[in-house]
Amino acid sequence: MADYNQLVVLDRIRRARTGVSRVELAVATGLSAQTISNAVRRLLERGFVVEGDRLIRGRGKPRTMLLLRAESGYALGCHIDPVALTFALVDLSGRTVDQSVMDTPAGPEAVVAALAVEVARMRERNGLALADVIGLGVAVPGPLDADGGRVVHPPWLEGWGSVPLLDLVTAATGLPTQVEKDVTAALAAELWQRHHDLEGTALFAYLGFGIGFALAHRGEVLTGSSQNAGEVGHIIVDADGPQCACGDRGCLGVSISLEYLVGRAVDAGVLPPGTARATPRELDCGMAALAAAAVAGDEAAVEILRRAARRVARGIMIVANLLDADRVVIGGANAERLAPYLDAAAAAEFATRATMRELHAVGFDGSAVGSWVGAVGAASLVLDEAFTPKAASLVLDEAFTPKAASLAHG
Ligand SMILES: [Zn+2]
């Protein structure tokens, strides 16, 4: 998909859920009727678009609706989490057509090998050749050296130092690969599943082994200067909270980490004293047991989770104020366990501390994708990349003069 105008037109067609006519495309893009006609003809020839019903809208002759042919391309996504590898296959419309999950093997070499096997298996199961897949997105916990596709000492991934993940996965799968932070991928998944209806400033709070944020403005994910935006682990959310490695007390990351919460549950007698919590899986099991105890009515368990929820809500409120957000989506493996307490905590926090509360509400939502959000998001980012007309192709386009290009950016 190279041509700039074709991409602009294709992007409009895929965003129109019930189809769009050539006349509407011309109005929406500002391109001439002739340019639209040429671009649509090429997209029909290449099989990305099909013609649908002829509809009468307003006066004039019936207009043929144009629809994305969802099965004309696919993207794969993999989320590398300390406990599980999740995989998703999405079609060109962003719809998930296949998914799978396995335990995370130890060490980067074993993860890359397992990933390559599962990606090939998923392609074969769905009858897809390498050329039918636009690309593979890999979502990982940050931080990320995005230029080099390198994961840099991700917390909780044992044996991972500085790993050139992009090169390793590209070589092992033969697919064009991109690597992104998992929370960024998660927000991309929400945008696609909600048909890019998150119009204002949206936050995604990802609760996994710790917490991370992603941000989108008018449907575009913003990632910062090195794609590592959203690392807010050292915001202080509770002056009486636990000691953090940074020297302060009550930082958001440490106050709601699985390590700390499971430790609290052991101290409070909610979990047995010998509860193993050395590995990510053991911590995850401990956290599940803590959440189950709370659901069963254990008062000490409820209090631990209620306090954690208040700390999460405080962190979300600070970030929402900073960015003037009007929508917060909360997801990640640990979000479900805190969900029963988060609504009340967030309502209390925002009623007193949301600085914009007299101007606009802040909507709260669970994830529309659930536990697959990282993998679906990684695949969604591949679609974003494929659909986004690049500045480079804009400059190279013959119809575009440098002056017009600089005006467009100004
Ligand atoms: Zn700290």
Kindly list the characteristics that best describe this protein.
alpha/beta, Arc Repressor Mutant, subunit A, Nucleotidyltransferase, domain 5, 3 domains, five-stranded mixed β-sheet, 43% helix, disordered C terminus, binds zinc ion, ROK family transcriptional regulator, ROK_cs, ROK, WH_DNA-bd_sf
What can be said about this structure in brief?
InterPro entries: ATPase_NBD, HTH_MarR-typ, ROK, ROK_cs, WH-like_DNA-bd_sf, WH_DNA-bd_sf. With 410 residues, the protein is α/β, with parallel strands linked by helices.
Structural class: alpha/beta
The average pLDDT is 89
What sequence of helices (H) and strands (E) makes up the elements? HHHEEEEEHEEEEHEHEEEHHHHEHEHHH
Tally of individual helices: 14
Poorly predicted segments: 392-410
